[in-house]
């Protein structure tokens, strides 16, 4: 069914309200920090507390592994904030995070990177991965030009 000229003001109004709604619900950095910290807590708890083969002595010393990881949510949010760049596009935001790459003794901490789209108060992970890239490489090379 074709759009009639007398429907154009109504269509413009609906599109304007939709744009206003998206703009008002565009997530900010604090929203992303909470989202990312929650995701990191889930990933770390799964890897450290469920899938790893921790020595019995360490398991006894830790006690409740999952609670210990959950207690790190605040510090993890701070790390995310320090290593994330937000691009506000008005209706949506892009969040680029790059964590890791530092040297720890003779071992390089693996780099984790993520590109996340924030839209309508929600987050969609566009790309995420881990690499052992050299420290002298540009940390945002994986984003492309």
Can you characterise this structure?
The protein is of the alpha+beta class. It has five helices and six strands; from the N terminus they run H-H-H-H-H-E-E-E-E-E-E. The strands form two sheets. A four-stranded antiparallel sheet has the order 1-2-5-6. Helix 2 (29-51) crosses helix 5 (73-82). The radius of gyration is 21 Å and the shape is elongated.
- Helix content bin: 40-55%
Continuous helix count: 5
Strand tally = 6
| End-to-end CA span | 41 Å
Q: Compute the gyration radius: what is it?
A: 21 Å
Mean pLDDT: 75
Secondary-structure element order, as H and E? HHHHHEEEEEE
Strand content: 15-25%
How would you describe the shape? elongated
Report the sheet with the most strands, covering strand number, pairing sense and barrel closure.
4 strands, antiparallel
Low-confidence stretches: 134-145
Structural class: alpha+beta
Q: What order do the strands of the largest sheet run in, or round the barrel if closed?
A: 1-2-5-6
What structural keywords apply?
single chain; 145 residues; alpha+beta; four-stranded antiparallel β-sheet; two-stranded antiparallel ribbon; 5 helices; 6 strands; 43% helix; 25% strand; disordered C terminus
The gist of it:
With 145 residues, the chain is of the alpha+beta class. 43% of the residues lie in helices and 25% in strands.
Task: Itemize the secondary structure elements and their pairings.
Layout: H1 8-24, H2 29-51, H3 56-62, H4 65-70, H5 73-82, E1 84-88, E2 92-99, E3 103-104, E4 107-108, E5 111-119, E6 122-131
Antiparallel strand pairs: 1-2, 2-5, 3-4, 5-6
Helix pairs in contact: 2-5
């Amino acid at each position: 069914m074709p759009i009639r000229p007398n429907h154009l003001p109504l269509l413009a109004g609906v599109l304007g309200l939709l744009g206003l709604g998206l703009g008002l619900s565009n997530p900010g950095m604090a929203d992303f920090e909470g989202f990312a910290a929650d995701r990191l807590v889930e990933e770390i708890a799964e890897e450290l507390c469920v899938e790893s083969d921790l020595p019995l002595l360490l398991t006894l010393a830790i006690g409740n592994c999952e609670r210990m990881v959950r207690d790190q949510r605040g510090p993890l949010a701070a790390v995310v904030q320090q290593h994330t760049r937000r691009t506000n596009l008005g209706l949506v935001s892009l969040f680029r995070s790059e964590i890791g790459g530092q040297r720890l003794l003779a071992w390089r901490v693996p780099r984790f990177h993520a590109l996340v789209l924030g839209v309508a108060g929600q987050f969609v992970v566009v790309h995420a991965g881990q690499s052992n890239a050299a420290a002298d490489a540009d940390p945002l090379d994986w984003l492309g030009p």
